[in-house]
Specification:
Elements (H helix, E strand, L loop, with lengths): L2 E4 L3 H13 L5 E4 L7 H18 L3 E3 L5 H9 L7 H23 L4 E4 L9 H15 L2 E2 L8 H10 L11 H30 L10 H16 L2 E5 L5 H10 L4 E5 L24 H12 L4 E5 L18 E4 L4 H13 L3 E5 L11 E5 L7 H12 L7 E5 L31 H27 L7
Parallel strand pairs: 1-2, 1-4, 2-3, 4-5, 6-7, 6-9, 7-8, 9-10, 10-12
Antiparallel strand pairs: 11-12
Length: 462
């Protein structure tokens, strides 16, 4: 079969191409997406698909048309119809698939398809019907497969390959909807949880009562300072998730939590939001729900995405007081360190906590004075190669790494919510949580010490 595969983006193409390969079908890729806006977003996705095609040695036909004006003209008449989202999206699907089918018919392809069929966020039935309608018009088969079960696998592969990961469908309308959803969700969740807390506890306590024991240590002025503090936590695994919860339980008033991954069965032994009920759900969103149940007044923003240079501006880092780095991907970790220190924001960074079993071996030091920890060594080397001249406090372990025990297939039975990883290191909650709590304590003590410097009082901290 000579198949032309319309590609909406590279991350969605990975699993589609792999599944087709399993059927002995090597598709030719086709790029035509005039719906993607603004131009920077269009170029990022276009360049990513070009790199993907090159790396996979696949032929790519690229119709490079940034069509803002023509796209808006095409779909604007659909906006005010009774079902605007359905009508608008159907028009968008038709524009792209008709171009694909026309190209396929002209160039001797026996069938055409699209990677849009993998996304659980698209209207699958409308895509299928649109493809079949266009198939009849151009007398070329529409090759239908429900690729949606492969979506998460493809996203994980894209992250592992450090591909550009888009944050919305593509068109300017979906970008607007993305931000409106975040704003409405933030307002709705906070109001809902606050109302529930008021109903359950109005006759017993107020949210401020949650921190009576804390205030006995910090004093009222110290607690006020904590409440005004803003922290970003990057990476919500065995270290970062505990750091985030400790901050919220310590009265921090504003926190951003960032992680692109979903909860996996192998996370349950050490990640605070990972339970049998949250498997397969986004880590950041799950943790946000839990944290708001603890402290409804806290201003929490969840980012279901990974930090990279391309999206660094999304996090408004310069407006935060602290950044906690609990990322384990080296390039992203180095990027975050450089970005944070250059932004003059106080950084506390976790080094390697896997393959360790003794929490008493966890220490804090300048990154340049760390030793024994292999990850700390790699970070130091990476920073030197980049010419990095700054400094920050690292949380690390002086315990020599242990060896992984041999894991057999019985530990990873088929059809579990996460697949067996090619390379995974053993880890235990008593170490990862201790590191997370230490990171949180660095933020808390530094905040209180600065508060005391301002007031002239003395605070006995770390």
């Amino acid at each position: 079969m000579k198949l032309l595969l319309h590609c909406c983006c590279a991350p969605c193409s990975i699993s589609c191409v792999k599944a087709l390969g399993d059927e002995k079908i090597i598709p030719q890729l086709f790029w035509y997406n005039p719906n993607i806006h603004p131009l920077t977003e269009y170029e990022a996705r276009r360049n990513c698909i070009k790199n993907f095609a090159d790396n996979e040695k696949l032929e790519l036909s690229l119709v490079d048309e940034y069509g803002l004006r023509s796209f808006l003209t095409e779909v604007s008449q659909e906006i005010n119809k009774p079902s605007p989202n359905i009508e608008k999206c159907e028009k968008c699907y038709r524009i792209r698939l008709e171009k694909t089918a026309a190209y396929a018919a002209k160039n001797g392809f026996s069938a055409f398809s699209t990677t849009l069929l993998i996304s659980p966020y698209q209207n699958h039935d409308v895509i299928k019907k649109t493809g079949e309608d266009i198939s009849a018009k151009y007398s070329v088969d529409f090759f239908y497969r429900d690729f949606r079960p492969l979506f998460r696998e493809g996203q994980s592969s894209a992250r592992a390959k450090e591909m550009y990961m888009q944050k919305y469908c593509g068109c300017i309308f979906s970008e607007e909807e993305r931000y409106l959803k975040v704003m409405n969700e933030k307002s709705g969740i906070n109001n809902s949880i606050k109302k529930q807390a008021q109903i359950q506890h109005s006759s017993l306590l107020t949210p401020h009562s949650f921190f009576d024991r804390l205030t006995l240590l910090t004093g009222k002025e110290g607690f006020k300072k904590l409440k005004k503090t803003s922290v970003l936590v990057f990476g919500l695994g065995g270290v970062g998730s505990w750091a985030a919860e400790a901050l919220v339980r310590s009265g921090i008033g504003k926190i951003g939590i960032i992680d692109s991954d979903t909860v996996c069965a192998s996370n349950v032994n050490r990640q605070i939001q990972a339970t049998s009920l949250t498997l397969g759900l986004p880590k950041a969103s799950c943790l946000k729900k839990r944290l708001l149940e603890i402290y409804p007044e806290c201003e929490i923003t969840a980012f279901d995405e990974i930090f990279c240079i391309e999206n660094a501006q999304d996090f408004n880092m310069e407006k935060s007081d602290y950044v906690i780095d609990a990322i384990d991907t080296i390039n992203h970790k180095l990027d975050l360190i450089e970005t944070t220190v250059n932004s003059k924001v106080t950084l506390f960074s976790s080094m390697g906590m896997a393959l360790k079993i003794d929490p008493l071996k966890i220490k804090t030091a300048s990154i340049w004075k760390t030793d024994i920890c292999p990850l700390a060594r790699i970070v130091r080397q990476g920073l030197r190669k980049r010419g990095f001249q700054g400094d920050f406090t690292a949380v690390y372990s002086v315990e020599p790494p242990m060896n992984n025990m041999e894991c057999t297939e019985e530990y990873y039975p088929e059809n579990t919510p996460c697949e067996k990883q090619k390379k995974a290191n053993g880890s235990i909650v008593t170490v990862t949580a201790a590191a997370g709590l230490m990171l949180a304590s660095l933020v808390i003590n530094d905040t209180l010490n600065k508060s005391c410097e301002t007031s002239g009082a003395a605070f006995r901290g770390l």
